[in-house]
Design brief:
Blueprint lengths: L1 E6 L2 E14 L2 E12 L2 H13 L15 H4 L4 H13 L6 E4 L6 H10 L8 E5 L5 H9 L16 H4 L4 E5 L6 H13 L1 E2 L8 E2 L3 E6 L3 H6 L5 H7 L2 E4 L10 H16 L8 H9 L5 H15 L1 H10 L18 H23 L4 H8 L3 H11 L4 H8 L14
Parallel strand pairs: 4-9, 4-10, 5-6, 6-9
Antiparallel strand pairs: 1-2, 2-3, 7-8
Helix pairs in contact: 7-9, 10-12, 14-15, 14-16, 15-16
Amino acid sequence: MIRAIVNNGKEEPYHIFFWPRFSIFGFSSFGDSYAMPLDPEGLRAIEMARNSSPDMSPAASQFVVPPDDIVFGCTPGMLAIRQQLEKVCGTNIPMLVQGDGGSGKETVARWVHHRSPWNSGPFVKVNFAAIPGSLLESELFGHKAGAFTGANSTRIGLVEMAQGGTLFLDQITDLGPTFQAKLLQLLQDGVFTRLGDQEERRLEARIICASTHRVDEAVMKGHFRQDLYYRINVFEVVLPPLSARREDIPTIVSYLLTRLSARFQREASTLEASKLRLLQNHEWRGNIRELENWISRYVLLGEEELLEELISMKHAYSGRPDELPEGSIPLKRIARQAGRAMSRELILKALQANHWNRRRAAKDLKISYRTLLYEIREIGVPSKRLQKQASKPIREANSPPPSAD
């Protein structure tokens, strides 16, 4: 919103930020506000803040935190996470949320925000991966007029915008060493200074950090400060991938169908149990985000295209007859899918028997090396590196990182 504010008898254009308040059902009312001059630097700050903070973007008014049974489902691991979060929602301790891309880290952060004493304040998201290092300090802490070339006016940063609310710092492992030290000071003392200013300002807000990469592994590699890790990791949440929550997929699909049908103004039929089983057996490497995109295509394209995608999904069919959609897939397609599943199993066994030497595996299979490479790409056989990663044990969510000794 643009307003003119009289300053020493002179009328100047200002932008008034109205912070939207959110409830679990979505956009409800307006909250706090800030005024910033509309010079070129201020306009750039507005645009940058809108891109970094969902509460300042048009999408913020559409962001709805799903019901608890959708966010946490019914699996024991997610229910345990919910019980732990309920105990700390009312406190102001730093929180670290980790998990694969699309597993729901921001949704969990917003869920915590809505149940905290600061739920009437702003929820400001900062994606460190999206902000160039040279602009990071100015964007986060703000700057004083004249702090650098082009800084024609004083403006507040995203940290100050989160006053009285929640500051969500996404992709925390993308921070460089210099700014890691500044963030550590903010967490330790609760104070910061704008670039080019000497005045210390106090931040009263909950801080939630998130990362798709294991922060403890970044510490062991020397890419992340150990003292900062312990500061942000007062309470840790590790979200499982969707493939570990297969029981929740039918409930999530039903919720997404209802929400996306309303968004696109399309009528979408409920999925049959046989098709839901196919979705449950899919790997979903993109987790809930990938599932949401797939449901969006189903709502927009319809039943015929759905069947084509169900057929083409890699690893969706494991070869058991009770997993076939009854009467909806032609016999030729079933045979082709079963043949691919069998080929994949034989190629995997040959590779494992030959310690992943592809030339020797091709000789055992009595096919050419070139044909084997084509089949590996065609049927999606994982590489030796992925096999090794999958076999590594996963550390418990709240256990300390391995000793560096």
